[in-house]
Each structure stands twice: as structure tokens, then as C-alpha cells.
Amino acid sequence: MKNIILPFLLILVVSCNSKTVEEKTETITLKENIATLTDAQLKNATIETGNLEKRSISSVLKVTGKIDVPPQNMVSVSMPLGGYLKSTKLLPGLHIAKGEVIATMEDQQYVQLQQDYLTTKSKLFYVQKEYERQKELNQSQASSDKIFQLADSEFRTLRITLSGLSEKLKLINVNPNTLSEKNISKSVNIYAPINGFVSKVNVNIGKYVNPSDVLFELINPSDIHLNLKIFEKDITKLFIGQKLVAYTNNQPDKKYNCAILLISKDLSVDEHSADVHCHFENYDKTLLPGMYMNADIEVKSNDALALPQDAIVNFEGKDYIFVVINKNQFRMTEVKTSTSENGFVEILDTEDLKNNTIVTKGAYTLLMKLKNKADE
Q1: In angstroms, rounded to a whole number, what is the distance separating the alpha carbons of residues 267 and 270?
Q2: pLDDT at 5 (0 to 100)
Q3: Any idea what the Cα angle at residue 198 is, between residues 193 and 203, rounded to 5°?
Q4: φ, ψ for residue 256, nearest 5 deg
Q5: What would the 3-class secondary structure string for the chain be?
Q6: Nearest CA to 228 among 197, 200, 196, 268?
Q7: Is 104:84 a contact under the CB 8 Å cutoff?
Q8: Cβ atoms of residues 328 and 37 within 8 Å
Q9: CB–CB of 215/209 below 8 Å?
Q10: Residue 232: which region, alpha, beta or left (left: phi > 0; alpha: psi -120 to 50)?
Q11: 99, 105, 150, 264: which could form a disulfide with 275 (CB 3.0–4.6 Å)?
Q12: Around 346, how many Cα atoms within 13 Å sit in the side-chain half-sphere?
């Protein structure tokens, strides 16, 4: 009987001891985030306290976008009357000057149009003389009103026809004022409407093009800009004239200074982002439309709650501060930090800290106190 009771008592004793150890361990775990200093230690530690302060702290907003040009600097070249491409020297990337011949077109309708114009012009000369003669006769009652009205109608009709043919000639870059029977041609030139470079060539020599076909696409890079995508939550941080720095993925060390020129008031449905157009202070010819870029924008947070850098300690990859419990006790509390400037760090989770007194100097001493306590 004694042999049976003894093991039971041993188990009971061991169980009680284990429970005591667990309670002791739990007590240490719960209290290990509180640093306690004696009056002598407090005097030597040079502890200073304070509260969260409102500070204007700069932060960097990192965004992406691509190089773009305004619509007026991008031109699609077509032939309004269609025709065959006779010749061109254009290649993508080739620089062109305004007024330069970029292609030659030919078609029989060009000949017909010039012929119709000269024929109508010749008829108009005769009809105008007849109109003037009938007008004099009608004024002297030597001719009936009907005959004069017919002459007047024919004269007006031919003037309208000639004016219409003149505008059609201008569409194919033929000057009606210099056109005569001696310089009728089956070929017409296409001239560059802007200074810039060629971005696309959509035709080849000998191909027939319709009036709606785009032969070439030209770009004037003088007003090239950076189009950034800014999310809704960050739009209010930006303003016209704000400075930023842009760079490409291939050359991140090469910075381009820009300024915000226009902020869109319309948010995209899918991403809830707005377009922000930025002007390059110094244009670089290596930057091409459609090229993706990154940008760093320095923004101000006027209502940021911050603490001095000395108030924050880092332990095992996390940031902590010490909240004053009483004169000699301080609770180690984890915080989320953001950007820092001029010796102050922005604190993100501030709701539970607004009314607390916080150690602003000597936090590292308290951390060492806790670590030494844990090692004991």
C-alpha cells in the first residue's frame, strides 16, 4: 500500500512544482516590457520626457508613368484624295523640318482635278464678260430681265465651282494661283507640317492609299512631357508647379528635373487614379514618347505627429518607444514609423499615444535595462 501512495505523492509534487514554474515564467513574460529604475539609476540615466508633436515632415511619393506628347505635337499624315506612293525617304526616327518634302504621290485624278480647274477658270472669264454685257443691256432696257438673270446665275455657278476646285487643289498641295496648262502634273508632293521626327511609316513605294489611310506619324518633341499615374489617396498632396525627379529603370542614377504642369480632375474607373502631366526642365533627346519612367515627388505632411529620433529604439527588427507609467517605471511599446526629417520621425499609430507622456531621451538606456533583466 505504501508503494502505491508514494508514486502518487511524487507525481502530485512534481505537478505542483511545474505549475509554479509555469506561473513564474508567465509572470516574467508579462512584466518584461516594463523597465524599472531606482532613484539613483534615474538620476544617472538622464531621462527626458515629452509628448507627440505636430510637425511638417517631408515624405517621398514614388510613382510611375510614361513619356507623352500633347495632341497638337503628334501629327498623322494622310492623302485626302488617295493615290499611289511614288517615293519617300522616311524611316522611323528620321528628323524632319517643317515644309520639307517627305513623300511624292501620283494619280490620274490629280491630272483631272487640275484640268477641271483650268477649264472652269477659262469658262469663267468668258461668262464674266457676258454677265457684264447683259448687265449693261438690262440697265438700258435693251435686254430682258430673264436673259440677265440667266447670265448672272451662270456666272455665280462657275465662281462657286472654281472656288471648290481651288480648295481641292490645296488639299493635294497644288497652288491654284500658279497653276497653268504648262505645269499640269500627275505627281504631287506631301510636305512636313511640323518640325520633329518620324515615329511610324505605314506605307511602301507603289502602294495605293485611301483618303482615310495614315501614311506617316510625326512627333514634335519640343513639348514632350511626363504623364504620371497618381492614386486617389495621393492627389491632394500635389499642386501645380511642384518639383519632382524622374528616372528610367535602365539608368536610375540619371535624374531628370520636372515640374507639375497639369493635374487631371477625372479618376479612372479601374485604378481610381488620375493623370498628372509634368514638364521637363531640360529636354533630353534620348527620351522617347511611350518610354516608361519612375518619379520621386517630395510631399509635405502638415499634420504629422512625430517624436524625436532619440525616442525610438529598434529591437529585433521592430521600432519601440517607452511610455511613462510613473516616476520610476516605463512601458516598452511597439510603434509604426514613417519618414524622418530634421531629427523627428513621423509616428503612424498615434490614437493610444496622444495623451501619454513618452521618453524622448534615454530610451536606449531603458532598452539595455530590459535586456539585462531578461538575461538574469
Answers
A1: 9
A2: 41
A3: 95
A4: -120, 120
A5: CHHHHHHHHHHHHHHHHHHHHHHHHHHHHHHCCEEECCHHHHHHHCCEEECCEEEEEEEEEEEEEEEECCHHHEEEECCCCCEEEEEECCCCCCEECCCCEEEEEECHHHHHHHHHHHHHHHHHHHHHHHHHHHHHHHHCCCCCHHHHHHHHHHHHHHHHHHHHHHHHHHHCCCCCCCCCCCCCCCEEEEECCCCEEEEEECCCCCCEECCCCCCEEEECHHHCEEEEEEEHHHHCCCCCCCEEEEECCCCCCCCEEEEEEEECCCCCCCCCEEEEEEEECCCCCCCCCCCEEEEEEEEEEEEEEEEEHHHCEEECCEEEEEEECCCCEEEEEEECEEEEECCEEEECCCCCCCCCCEEEECHHHHHHHHHHHHHC
A6: 268
A7: no
A8: yes
A9: yes
A10: alpha
A11: 264
A12: 15
pLDDT on residue 374: 58
The pLDDT confidence band at residue 7, using thresholds 50, 70 and 90, is: very low
Query: How buried is residue 359: exposed, middle or buried, by Cβ count under 10 Å (0-12/13-18/19+)?
Result: buried
Q: Is residue 107 a contact partner of residue 155, using CB atoms and an 8 Å limit?
A: no
Q: Which amino acid is at 211?
A: P
Residue 99 CB burial class (10 angstroms; 0-12, 13-18, ≥19): exposed
208: left (phi over 0), alpha (psi -120 to 50) or beta: beta
Contacts of 17 (CB under 8 A, 6+ apart): none
Give 119-148 pLDDT, tens digit per residue.
Answer: 999 999 989 888 888 888 878 777 677 888
All three cell numbers of 234 = 495621393
End-to-end CA distance of the chain: 45
> Which residue's entry shows cell 521592430?
318
